[in-house]
Design goal:
The structure is a single chain. This protein is α+β, with helices and mostly antiparallel strands. The protein contains 9 helices and 32 strands. It has an 11-stranded antiparallel beta sheet with strand order 25-24-23-22-32-31-30-29-28-27-26. Strand 31 and strand 32 form a beta hairpin.
Length: 551
């Protein structure tokens, strides 16, 4: 018998190697009487992705196994109940075998793929199951079907996926994870796969990853507009909220939507797929035609649910555990989980969060990475510089008052009373108030500024570049601070004087040292999609007032 061709042997060896490597990163999730499922490691420090519907019954703590034959403790981190995604963190190592992340936008019908997981919870020997198949569809949309869960931009596969595979990885032939298996079509008389499985696209998961690491209960986005297909096959806006950012940016009833998030929009289904992969609050590019003219805008996306509505729908998922690790809704008679004191330290209950402990960790990491110097008691800041047209600007940020002289015009605000109405100078959206909040944040830090939390990672100008974002609430004024992840520099802030309004946005550039404090020598001031002005050549003078006058 002739030996197989060399090309066949090479392809076989490549497949074996890809499966062997991928298997090491696959997780089997066990939740006792609550069932279990699958997951996949995405970082060496133990972060793993699974389905929300797998993590939810498990509660705040669970057991996970890897193909190394060991059992690991894991704790819930963050949940995305709409997208059916949860982030957990395995404990006990700092060198977990993380999977290689693939680009799910490059997946095509006919590509080879394979799934690894824990179907029917068969991995009692801690060895996951591997099934091979091909991609049979892309861009699939799955309606909520009476639940919160909505699958958008899914990958469809004929690789065998059954109950227990939920939350596990779908890999391409090279062993890169391209999706998270979640839904299947089943034969009506039993829960057996009939050859149609659906995986959440990995690009969607990565868009939400920063938000999930915040420990939050995460919501998906809405444009604030509805669309339909007209008789000519064009996707037309049929309704739009006048409170939405899309409306403020110029989108109107009757406009033809042609691109969303840099993806072409040709059908309503395609629009839902493009919209569904983004978290609430992201800014994404949108393009539309009106009267034959193309308009390109950047829109801040609203949330699908109000905070209260989302929490009410998933109340069981965020209920705090009892001291032994069980949840109040555990069924009577169910064996209670035994959780070590060390593991319990990794969980903190708080409304709106799956695990507030991780929000504090990310907040601290972001704050400490900011190379800002030490302002100490230097709470009176004066700066002089020039405007874009060469006119002079002078600003004084004192604890109880902020003043500015811009192009010969004076403005001032007192730091008391209802700050949301103090939006001087005229047309800036609250430049003095924004600068005051920025100064207060640097001097007092996240513990004393007001209520400060870690939002996650979000873009500013392009969805390909993302920043760590801290959200501060001070005297009912919301602020957002954007930090460059590698350098830790604060590169932008937004100050929202009220909901459903354009913030005063500051971009900080060209930092220099002033009396031990790193401050920008250039600030770009924006409101909406317009530049209000540019301050450059800034020279800062810092001093201190009496402690009794401190903010």
């Amino acid at each position: 018998m002739a030996a197989p061709p060399q090309e066949v042997l090479e392809a076989e060896n490549a497949r074996i190697a890809a499966i062997e490597k991928a298997t090491r990163s696959s997780v089997c999730v066990f939740a006792g009487a609550a069932g279990g499922g699958s997951g996949v490691l995405i970082s060496k420090d133990g972060y793993a992705i699974t389905n929300y519907h797998v993590a939810d019954p498990a509660g705040s703590f669970m057991k996970c196994s890897l193909s190394d034959g060991k059992l690991y403790d894991a704790v819930i981190v963050g949940i995305d109940p709409v997208g059916d995604v949860a982030l957990i963190k395995l404990q006990g190592r700092d060198d977990f075998p993380a999977a290689d992340i693939g680009d799910s936008d490059k997946v095509q019908v006919g590509d080879w793929c394979f799934a690894i997981g824990n179907p029917f919870l068969l991995a009692t020997d801690m060895q996951p199951t591997v099934t091979w198949g091909m991609v049979s569809g892309v861009g699939r949309y799955q309606y909520p079907s009476g639940t919160l869960i909505e699958y958008t931009d899914c990958i469809q596969t004929d690789a065998s996926i059954n109950p227990g595979n939920s939350g596990g990885p779908l890999f391409n032939k090279d062993g890169q994870v391209i999706g998270i298996n979640g839904r299947i079509s089943i034969e009506k008389r039993g829960r057996v796969n009939v050859g149609v499985g659906y995986a959440i696209s990995m690009n969607q998961v990565m868009n939400f990853l920063g938000y999930l690491k915040s420990g939050r209960v995460v919501d998906h986005a809405t444009l604030g507009a509805t669309v339909t297909t007209d008789s000519e096959g064009e996707v037309i806006v049929t309704n739009i909220l006048d409170t939405s950012d899309a409306y403020r940016r110029g989108l109107r009833y009757g406009d033809e939507l042609v691109s969303f998030g840099s993806k072409p929009v040709t059908t309503v289904n395609g629009f839902k797929n493009a919209l569904g992969i983004y978290p609430r609050g992201w800014r994404v590019p949108v393009s539309f035609f009106r009267g034959g003219e193309r308009h390109d805008i950047v829109v801040r996306l609203a949330g699908v649910h109000s905070r209260e509505e989302l929490l009410a729908k998933i109340q069981k998922s965020v209920a705090p555990p009892s001291p032994d690790g069980s949840k109040p809704e555990d069924h009577p008679g169910e064996e209670k989980k035994q959780v070590s004191e060390e593991l319990q330290k990794l969980f903190e209950a708080r409304s709106g969060y799956a695990n507030y402990y991780f929000n504090l960790q990310q907040r601290t990491r972001t704050w400490e990475a900011w190379n800002r110097g030490d302002a100490g008691e230097l709470n009176d800041w004066k700066v002089a510089g020039q405007l874009a047209d060469g006119d002079v600007v002078q600003i004084d940020l004192a604890p109880k008052k902020a003043t500015a002289t811009v192009a010969g015009r004076d403005s001032a605000i007192e730091i008391d009373g209802d700050l949301s109405q103090k939006l001087e100078p005229l047309g800036s959206g609250g430049l003095l108030l924004a600068l005051h909040a920025w100064q207060r944040f640097q001097i007092l830090g996240p513990e004393k500024f007001g209520e400060v939390s870690y939002l996650g990672t979000a873009p500013l100008d392009t969805i390909d570049q993302r920043f760590d974002v801290l959200v501060g609430l001070y005297d009912a004024i919301e602020t957002r601070f954007y930090f460059e992840p590698k350098s830790g520099d604060l590169i932008a802030m937004e100050m929202f004087p009220e909901a459903d309004s354009d913030p005063c946005e500051l971009r900080f550039q060209e930092y220099d040292d002033f009396e031990g404090v790193r401050l920008p020598t250039k600030i770009i001031i924006r409101r909406g999609d317009q530049i209000y002005n540019i301050l450059h050549g800034l020279k800062w003078t810092l001093s201190s007032t009496e402690p009794k006058d401190a903010a």
